[in-house]
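ZP: hey, is the glycinamide ribonucleotide complex queued? I don't see it on the tracker
AM: it wasn't, my bad. submitting now with these inputs:
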Amino acid sequence: MASWVVFASGTGTNFRALIEVLSPLGKRPLALVSDVPACSAVTYAKDNKIPVLLMNYQGITRMQAENKLLDQLERFGNVQLVVLAGFMRVLSPYFLNSFPGTIINIHPSLLPRHPGRNGLADSLGSQDEELGITIHYVDEGVDTGKIIVQESFVRDAQEPFDSLEAKIHAIEHRLYPQVVLGLLNRFDTSEALN
Ligand code: GAR
């Protein structure tokens, strides 16, 4: 069975969507990784008996924080897929090299438009006629990695931001579990062939 971890920093609605769709299929992550101990994603993981690994960036360098996490992850065995779901830290090239080509992210805009941590607000505040989401591999840039899938919709100029935001999240919650499932199945298939 392919092994994966989820990283989240906040509300965790995408994390929740992943668990709700994939857990009944027997696909549960090894752990939730978070840099925010009090966030809702951590509470949801604990309530659902998913181990939580906390990253503490305080008073140490990013690489030290990442090294501590890598040590913890090693105890869980071979991680095949790292799923960023609202993780609001930039991972170093060193960390990315520990999981080459197997870290994915979800972003609430049609990349390459509106990268970065304010992607949703930037996207809503723009004059763009189409809005949407992107799921992509993570590379050393900020939201610049190879795109796996995007979904867009035509914006109604009269539609309020909260309604547009709800549409964007609904797309995220539907698409991300499907993408993760597809990747996990690919790992499982190649394992079966070996
Ligand atoms: C999601 O909309 C995700 O696309 C975004 O953070 C939100 C997390 O929501 N990610 C980024 O902006 C990454 N740059 P959630 O905690 O409810 O899943």
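AM: back. The longest strand covers residues 130-137.
ZP: great, adding it to the tracker
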